[in-house]
Amino acid sequence: SPSRGLGDVYKRQVYECGSITKAAEKLFISQPSLSSFITKTEKQLGVKLFDRSQNKLTLTYAGEKYVKAAERILIIYNRMMKQLEDISENKAGRLRIGIPWQRLEYMAPTLLPRLHEEFGSLEVDIVPGNYSVLEDALHNRKVDFIIVPLLGPDENYNCVEIHRENLYAVTKKGYLSSNCFVEGRRDSVDLRAIADMPIFVLPPSFSFRKVTDGLFEIYGITPSNLVEYPSPGSKFRTAAAGQGIDIVLKSNLEVTKSVDPLDVFYIGDPPASVGVYAMFRKDAYISSVEKKCIHIIGELFN
Question: Rounded CA gap, 164 and 161, in Å?
Fold first, then answer.
């Protein structure tokens, strides 16, 4: 029942916060009410779910078993609610999309008005963050899906390809010599030929770092001079200033400006590209609203 599903949410929130007071604040209910609910549940079950002997509440062995079962119940409950929404064709509700910071700037201004036009009363929440933050939000069901660039589907998730984007090598104009190009082409860089030059990358917490590392693996190279930068903009501007090579997506070129004249090259022949995916939990039910949203994103940004 809905009340049973809500009860599982309550207990999971206490488990995650380690405190009834903090959990009550997040759930917008009073601390005595939540404490009474937990005590009543433990009495009904005949076991203690939480160890209260320390400052931070911890799960007992029975509590660990209960939380694992509750997680499965919540998955089933969420799937059922999405299926019922599809059956009733009710477009009211909430859609939570996780978008990396570097994609947010150019996606949100176009996407949000289009979704409002399509779905009317649907509440759309955009959750920004780097890949590790978004992956954690997806795992904890704080977002319905996240949008990330990947060289291929991640087998740990249900990945739906939205569209594809080419990869580019960006340098200051005239930085690369002719022996860096793919034979017979002046618009494409041979990645093997620049493996010992300064190549700028993002920290491992960014999804795009997985892309660049995977690209090097595909080409069978181990770059000897990788330089890590904290943000896409900083590495782009440093490359534009003639200090090395930046590897970017087409969407980065559209939002990052440079006062320096640039050379922009494809990578390899045929040009290397990545898929931009909507990534769901493996156990997620993809509703008709989510499918329509993915279709709209593909239309807008393909």
Answer: 8
Give the number of C-alpha atoms closer than 13 A to the C-alpha of residue 82, restricted to the C-beta side. 18
Among residues 215, 242, 230, 198, which one has the least CA distance to residue 101?
Answer: 230
Q: How many CA atoms lie within 13 A of 267 on its CB side?
A: 25
Residue with tokens 């003639």: 242
Q: Is 141 exposed, middle or buried (0-12, 13-18, 19+ CB in 10 A)?
A: middle
| 228 Cβ contact list (under 8 Å, min separation 6) | 200, 201, 202, 203
DSSP the chain: -HHHHHHHHHHHHHHHHT-HHHHHHHHTS-HHHHHHHHHHHHHHHTS--EE-SSSS-EE-HHHHHHHHHHHHHHHHHHHHHHHHHHHHT---EEEEEEEEHHHHHHHHHHHHHHHHHHHTTEEEEEEEE-HHHHHHHHHTTSSSEEEEEESS--TTSEEEEEEEEEEEEEEETT-S-GGGBPTT-SSEE-GGGGTTS-EEE--TTSHHHHHHHHHHHHTT---S-EEE-SSHHHHHHHHHTTS-EEEEEHHHHHH---SS-EEEEEETTTTPEEEEEEEE-TT----HHHHHHHHHHHHHH-
- Tell me the torsion sign for CA atoms 105, 98, 59, 34: positive
Residue 118 CA to residue 103 CA, distance in Å, equals 22
Judge contact between 103 and 151, C-beta under 8 A: no
Report pLDDT for 284: 85
Q: Which two tokens stand for residue 105?
A: 């700037």
pLDDT at 255: 72
* pTM for this entry: 0.69
pLDDT digits (tens, 9 = 90+) for 284-296: 888 888 999 999 9
Q: Pull the structure tokens for residue 150.
A: 């990947």
Tokens of 15: 């488990």
CA 205 to chain centre: 11
